[in-house]
Amino acid sequence: MIYADNAATTRTSAAAQKAMIDTMERFWGNPSSLHTPGQQAKEALQAARKSVAKAIGAQPQEIYFTSGGSEADNQAIVSAAKAGALKGKKHLVTTAIEHHAVLHTMDQLSKEGFEITLLPMDESGIVKVQDVVAAIRKDTALVSVMYANNEIGTIQPVAEIGALCRELGVPFHTDAVQAVGHLPIDVRTQNIDMLSLSGHKFHGPRGVGALYVRRGIPLLTFIHGGAQESGRRAGTENLPAIAGMAAALEDTVTHMAENTAHAEKLRDTLIEGLSRIPHSALNGDRERRLPGNVNFCFEGIEGESLLLLLDDKGVAASSGSACTSGSLDPSHVLLAIGRPHEVAHGSLRLTLDVDNTMEDAEAIITAVTDVVNYLREMSPVWKALQRGERNYVIQ
Length: 395
Ligand SMILES: *Cc1c(COP(=O)(O)O)cnc(C)c1O
Fold this sequence. Notes:
Elements: E1 2-3, H1 14-26, H2 36-56, E2 63-66, H3 69-86, E3 91-95, H4 100-111, E4 115-119, H5 129-135, E5 140-144, H6 158-168, E6 172-175, E7 194-198, E8 209-213, H7 239-254, H8 256-275, E9 280-282, E10 293-298, H9 303-312, E11 315-316, H10 332-336, H11 341-344, E12 347-351, H12 358-378, H13 380-386
Parallel strand pairs: 1-11, 3-4, 3-5, 5-6, 6-7
Antiparallel strand pairs: 2-8, 7-8, 9-10, 10-12
The structure holds pyridoxal-5'-phosphate.
C-alpha cells in the first residue's frame, strides 16, 4: 500500500516509539507525586516541555500540553474570547478555510453573543494581509489564522499578520498543526501569541498536542481539576505520549531541510503528472504550499468513487479533510476558494512525506490517470460535457 494521506495522520516514527516505551518503563510515576518515582516522571515531563518549546522558539513555561490539536484550538479561542469579553471586546476574526476545530468553536461563540468575521479567500487560498487590517476593530478580541491549510496546503502570511496584530494590540492565534515539524517556526520573530500543534501530524502519537501561549497573554483554565499545566489544564499528564511527541518533533526538526527537499520533489512530480490529465486543476497556490501537499479537482467525477478505486489499486488518499469525508457536503475550503459544488466533489488530496519514494509518486500518477479515465467513461456528466451539452468549469 502506498500511504499518501499524511495530512490525516502520520506513521509513528521509531524515535517516538522508543521514547514512549522508554517512558512507560522508566517514568511511570505521577509527576505530581513528591516521592522519587513521581519526581523522575516530573523531570521527564519538563524535559519534553523544554524540547517542544525549543522547536518553535518558545520558553518551556509557555507550553501547555493538551489532548491534541483540537483541544489546543478550542482552549486558545475560548480563552481569548472570554478574556476579551471581560474588556467589552466581543469580536473575533478568522478565515473561511480554517479546520473545523476552529470554525465550530467560532460557531459556538457566535451563539453565545460573539461576532465573527470570516476573512474571504480568492482562488489562491491565501489570506490577504490588507483584509486582516480591514477586519480588525476596536472591539476585536482575537485574530486566528491557520499557519498552513490541511486540505490545499497553502501557507498563510503568519509573520506579517503577527506583526500587524502586535502593532494594534490584538492577540494572534495560529493553528499550526500542519506546519509544526514541516516548516521552520519561530514564535518570537513571527509575533505569534498563541499556537496549536498536534503530535500525530509529525510522526508522533495521536491524542496529544500542545498550546503555546506567550507570557503576558492570559490563558483561562479549560479542563478543571488538579493543578497540572500551571492550573490551566487539569488531568494526570499522558507522559508516554508527551515524550513520544517531543522525540518525534526533535527528530523532524533536525531533519527538516532534507525532508522538505524530498517532499517537494515528490510533490512537484505529482503536480506535473496529474496536470496532464485533461480538465484537471490544482487547488491552492502553486508556490506557497506545504512541501508534500497535492490537491486536484477533476471535472466530471465523484471524489468518493475515485478514493475507493485508488484504494483498490493500493493508493491510500483522501478527498480533503478526514473530518468531512464520509459526509456528502463538499469541502468548505474548496468552496471558499471559489470551486463550484459539482467540481469540489471531484477533489483528491495526496499528501506525501519522508516515508514516500519517487516510485510511489510515479505509481500514483499512473493509478490516478487510469481511475479518472475509467470513471469518466461511465459518467453521464462527462458524456454531456464531451457532447457540448454542458460547459466545462475546468478548462
Ligand atoms: C489534524 C488537525 C487538527 C486537529 O488535531 P487533532 O490532534 O487531530 O485534534 C487541527 N487543525 C489542523 C489544521 C489539523 O490538520
